Structure formats: structure tokens, C-alpha cells
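Our preliminary data section would be incomplete without showing what the modeling component actually yields. Below, a chain of 672 amino acids is followed by its predicted structure, encoded as C-alpha cells that our downstream tools consume directly.
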Amino acid sequence: MIMEGWRKGFLLSKQNPSKTPSFFKSVAVIAKNFILKQSQKITSPNWVRDDKSQFGFGILSKISILLIFFFLFSCQRGEVSTYKKYLNHNDTVRYVGKQQCRACHAEIYDSYMQTGMGKSVHFATKEHSALADSKMPLIHDSIKNLSYQPFWKNDSLYLKEFRLKGKDTIHQLIKKVNYKIGSGQHTNSHLFEINGYLHQMPYTYYTQEEIADLPPGFEDGNNTRFSREIGLECMSCHNAYPNHLEGSLNKYESIPQGIDCERCHGPGEVHVKQKLAGNIIDTSKYIDYSIVNPGKLPLDLQFDVCQRCHLQGTAILAEGKSFTSFKPGMKLSDVMDTYLPKYEHDNSFIMASHVDRLKQSACFKASEMTCVSCHNPHKSVTTLKVNYFDAKCMQCHDVCEDEKTQNCTSCHMPKSTSTDIMHVAITDHKIGVHTGIKTKKGAFKGLVAINNTRPTNLSKAKAYLKHYESFEANPIYLDSAFSFLQKSTGNFTSYIQYYYLKNDTKGLVNFVMSNNADSSKYSKSDLAMSYSRMGEVFSSQNLNVDAEYFFKKSVELMPFVIDYKIKYGTFLLKINKKTVAFPIFIEALKLNPTIKEVHLNLGYINILTGEYELADRRLKQAIALDPDYILAYENLVLSSQMQNKTSELKYYLQKILEIAPNHKAKIILENL
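Predicted structure:
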């Protein structure tokens, strides 16, 4: 009976592969029931007396066969415990680059390069930019009174920031665009690089509506202009893994162009070596463990490959892990937990929430579907036939009697705007009946780790802290974080973050005085941030010996983070150690000459040393980088006073009042 069922199931799988998983499940259940019945017979005295020899060979052999089949079907269903470890999971295996993959897989490579992932990042040239065929629209930030105009110079893209007063241009800053980020299916945003430091620019082209606007997060007075750092967390999803410089947040030694083959298949060095050595495996029969084929992974690990990036939220790394630690075939929750805020009655979603929405679908819950059940990662959706996704639906839902396109997704996966990116309509991956009625969020239920049902208390504490700092400064998040911190261990850096964000100076000082940071438990990045914050707080309490030690430690741990150098140097100026501070700012200037705070502090040092002409040049350079930089104008006021230049003094005071009408400069100007 079992063998006949298996034979029929095999034929069914050949005729309709989509039915195969459910059949395996049925056979496994039948096998389980059969084994239970036979085990009951084993304990029966009457049955044992019938034929012991038959029991010894026949029944045991049948049970063994059934167990083997049960085991095989369990492998097919994808239990984590039943697969071998891939050779390219070893940390010594290097990434070889997508061109190496193309040598043997040219057809797949050429097809993949036309997908959104393949086009995710590239040089900002006409060939790769959506702006090449646009009207190059100008945008205006009415809150900051700044305008942005892209323009081409030969094949290079530039962005001009400017401000008008009447018909006069009173501010202008031009930067070359080095990279466009985004496939162009929804957006093209823009990045600039200097000495390896990568920042986002305040201009995004929204291709669906063919309009330009500020990037997500820059709107409503939050335009950070050219200072938003593109760290490894961003780059590790939007691109192939870059060559990130250790000791920095956003400095790279090289940047790939687009999400490549190895993001889904793992590093390819050992695979290439084996093939060149003639070690060829028949992958129609066996698994090649030198490279990951996601389609042959257990279902949960297959799903993890996609949800590594298609699950946007508050990502919390596990101890000892980085944003480049995950490799296909690994369990994602061993590397990171990704949290989303959940509310009562909320049906809104963010851009990269495909996994979260899909997991809410009845189709997902009632089947063994994964992302690749409907998507071929090697094919661009723009090249698919109009009824491609309908055909996918019809594999499980036989509701259509003809071959006409029904466009199932238009009703059951409608396009909608996301809550985090304007001017964009994306497919809602929650498959179901959609009313189109928007509901209010309702009460906040908490942050939920979408990829891990059992996150640690420390992971949850970190999630609330990060969500508070990065997305929404709601005090309830700090309260939740503190509650989970009290239940966890190994949390020194998280306590520092908590007291710092809560602005609890006394609490932070007391905690530091009572606890020691075991540097072996924490990443250099987390420790450096904690030390810098400890330095700030101790400095504010004039605990200068400790503050100097903490600032110095932050710079030693992360020598390429310019912000830590600036804070350390500024503290040294506060305690009258300008000769020690000067080389720190000079080093920062060499690393990145576009940071306004560096020019400001060097200018201030020049005032202290009586080098007024040099001071004025540096302070004006800071203003060229930011026309509303009040601190630079205040130092120009000081320089003018020192030089007894009354007309210039009045001019700079007036400039300050243009920016901040209630500034104390008004009193000084009146007294003059």
C-alpha cells in the first residue's frame, strides 16, 4: 500500500510539482500510522505466537523501509537538522565576484543582471541612471530654503545645491554623484564618495510618478543634506558585500555594483577551485556542498535567504556577528533578529516588508510556499508574461475555467503606498481579501521579532533602544528597554545607551562607576560609541580625567570615525589642550575635508593662536559647506572683534539674525 502510494505520488509530482509537498506530508502521515499499528501488534501475545521468524525479518524490514522513507520525506520537507554544512560557510572562503560566476553561468548571469537586484547599485552614468531619460527635475526644500538641480557633464552626474535671494544666488555647492542606488523600478537615490567615505545626497528620482523629491527621511525639516552616512547595515542589503574598512562606520575600500550571485549562493572560492580541479557533481542527483543552491535548502533556511533583506525593520545583531556574517544556508536568527512595531487594527506596511506581510497570509500558513514559489530570482518581473503570476495562483486555486488572464494580484495583492517611502506604490504581499479601507494604528502592542519566535531579553532591550533612537523617540520604548535589560546579562553598552538616551546623567555616571566593561563581550563599534557617550556625560560634569580617557578610547577603537575625533578634539579645547587637539582635527581633515565641524574647530584654534586670516578662511569654508552654520558665524564674530573690524562684525551678526531671529546677536548688534 505504501509503495503504491509512493509510486502514485511520484507520478503526481511529475505532472504537477506544486502538489508534491502536500503529498509527501500525506505519505509521512500514512507511514507514521502504519508504524504505530505494527508496534501495537508487536506487543500482542497472539500475534507473536503466530510466526516469530516472520516478525524477525518481515515486519522489522518493513518498518525499516518505512522509517527510511519517512526520513527522506522529512529531508524534502526541510528540517534544519537533516542537511550537511556547506563548505563555503567557513570564514576562510573568499568571495570571488560575479564575473567569475559568469564564466560558467553566462545565460543565468545575463538574465539576473536585468533584475532589480542586479541593478540595485551602479556608477551614476547615463547608462545606469533613470535621470538620463528624465527632464532632470529641480526640487525645492521650502523649510530649509534650499534647491537641488541635477545636471550632466559628459557622462558624469552632478548635483547642485543652491539658495536664491531675489535673483541672486547667495549659496551654491556642487557635488559629483558617484553612485545611484535603487534599480529604477521605484526610485533612484544618489550617493557621493570622498576618500572612501560614503554619504547619501538630498535628491531622489521617483520613477513611477517620474518626479523628484527629497529622499525618504529627509522630508518635513529633516533634510540632513550631505551628511547622512551610508553604513554597513544599509550597504549589506542594497548591494553585494562591500570591502568595509574596519574601524569605520561608512568608509569602504571598494564598493561592488549591484547585488551579486554570491549574496544568494554564498562565497564562491571553494566552488571555483573544485570545478577547476575537475570535481564535477551531478546536481540532478546530488547536492553540491561547495556552493549553496537555495532551492535545495530546507524550507526555513530557504526563506531566510530572502528575509535577510526583504524584512526591513530594527535589526539587532547577535553577539560576535556583523551585517556581513550571514551566508545562505545559515539560520538568520543566529546572526540577527529583525523587529517591527505591532499595533492593534493596523494594516499599513513599509517598503521592504514582503516577508512580514506574506507570513500573515492564509496561503503561507496553509502551505509550504516560500518566496521562490512565485518568484524566479534570475528573471526580471518586467520580462514575465502577463499571466505568469496568475498561473502560480492556479497551481493551488483552480478557480478559472478558461485561459484568460484574471489578474489575481490586483484584488488579492493590490499595489499600495508604503508608510516609509513617498511617491511609491508596491505590491502588498499579504495575500487575501483586501477591502481598501485604511484603519488607524490603534494601541501599540510591542516590538516583535519577525524572524525569531524566542529572542533573548537582551535582544529585545537592544531593539527598543535602537527603535527609540532611530525611528521614534517615544518614552515607552525606553521603559520597555530598561525592563528587558534588568532581565539580561552582558549588557554594559546597552545600559550606557539607555542612560544616554534618557538623558539621565547621574544614572550613567553611577553605572559606569559601579561596573566595568568587559571588552571581549562587545564589538569595537558598540564599545567606541559607549566610550564617546561616556566622555560627553563625564565632561558635562567636569569629571575631565575620566572624560579624556573615555574619548581617547573611542578614537583608538574606531580610528576612522570622524565624529569621535571631533568630540575628542572639542573636549581637549574645552580643557585648554589646543596643542593636543590640533593634530586630531588635522587628521580628521585629511580623512574627509567635507566635514564642517572640522573646519570650524581648526578655525577656532587659529583664533586662539592669533592666526586670524587663516581662521577666517577655515570658518568661511565651514559656511560654504552649510550656509546656516551659526557656530561658524559666531566664530567669525569673535575673529572680527579680535581684529577690531566693526563692519565685518556687524555683517556677521546680521547673518546670524537672518538664520535665527531670536539669537543673542540681536542684543550685541543693538549695543554696537
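The mean pLDDT is 87. The CA atoms of residues 361 and 446 lie 21 Å apart. Preliminary results of this kind motivate Aim 1 of the renewal.
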